[in-house]
Amino acid sequence: EAQVTQNPRYLITVTGKKLTVTCSQNMNHEYMSWYRQDPGLGLRQIYYSMNVEVTDKGDVPEGYKVSRKEKRNFPLILESPSPNQTSLYFCASSSPRSGVYNEQFFGPGTRLTVL
Amino acid sequence: GESVGLHLPTLSVQEGDNSIINCAYSNSASDYFIWYKQESGKGPQFIIDIRSNMDKRQGQRVTVLLNKTVKHLSLQIAATQPGDSAVYFCAETAPLGAGGTSYGKLTFGQGTILTVHP
């Protein structure tokens, strides 16, 4: 089944404790992206990657890191999580259609709570 | 930065009615506009997109209208069904840099909650 998987689905952690949220897709998509979703703010893009070893900042990259060493994986790293990073996180992937990545396939989400 | 927003946060309709969800945008450089549907507990799902050189595009039971003069976008759902109940987001993307051809960044609006009553 074609899908985007995220792990863990739920995580409660404490301020300052490094964590990684993994994202994997099995559709051979070249584009992957991370978003956070907060009430009243919709989805905001954190980072995206248009291919292996190519990453770019979205609208809210502060406090996050990403890497794209393989096509299928795009982990999100929080080196020193803070309570304002408590949110619902979505990973997405896409293949280009006429050069754009409008049709993105989203994972099920990771709910992160930072105490 | 510029962002995409919505006029109405909630919309309630009766099954079988047509629904219209509106969205205002402010970035005049936006080249594509996209609608996503998010059901409770799930990730967003692509519905339809439209390029800025078009003013209307139709899909299965959905139509997107674009008015660049007033920077307004709408999603029309025909014969709305209970399964259409969800949060609907508009999003926009613009080429990166002046004269750019790379579209990696997506900006989403806040969302509209559509509730369809049987």
Number-wise, the strands of chain A total 11
Unreliable spans of chain A are none
Largest sheet entry of chain B: 6 strands, mixed
Quick one: overall form of chain B?
Answer: elongated
Main sheet summary of chain A: 7 strands, mixed
Molecular shape of chain A: globular
Gap from first CA to last CA of chain B: 41 Å
List low-confidence stretches of chain B.
1-8
Q: Quaternary state, please?
A: heterodimer
Q: DSSP helix count of chain A?
A: 0
Number of strands of chain B: 11
The termini of chain A sit apart by 36 Å
Mean pLDDT of chain B: 89
Q: Counting H and I runs of at least 4 residues, what is the number of helices of chain B?
A: 0
Work out the largest interface and the residue count of each chain. A-B, 28 and 23 residues
User: For the CA atoms, what is the radius of gyration of chain B?
Assistant: 14 Å
Amount of beta strand of chain B:
over 45%
Structural class of chain B: mainly beta
The helix/strand order of chain A is EEEEEEEEEEE
Please describe what this structure looks like.
- The complex is a heterodimer of chains A (about 120) and B (about 120).
- In chain A, strands 2, 4, 5, 6, 9, 10 and 11 form a 7-stranded mixed sheet that branches.
- Chain A is about 0% helix and about 50% strand.
- With about 120 residues, chain A is mostly beta strands.
- The model of chain A has no long low-confidence stretch (mean pLDDT about 95).
- Chain B is mainly β and about 120 residues long.
- Helix content of chain B is about 0%, strand content about 50%.
- Chain B is built from no helices and 11 strands.
- In chain B, the strands form 2 sheets. In chain B, strands 2, 4, 5, 9, 10 and 11 form a 6-stranded mixed sheet that branches. Chain B has a 5-stranded antiparallel sheet with strand order 1-3-8-7-6, with no helix packed on it.
- In chain B, a hairpin with a 4-residue loop joins strand 7 and strand 8.
- In chain B, about 35% of the residues are buried.
- Chains A and B meet through strand 4, strand 5 and strand 10 of A and strand 5, strand 9 and strand 10 of B.
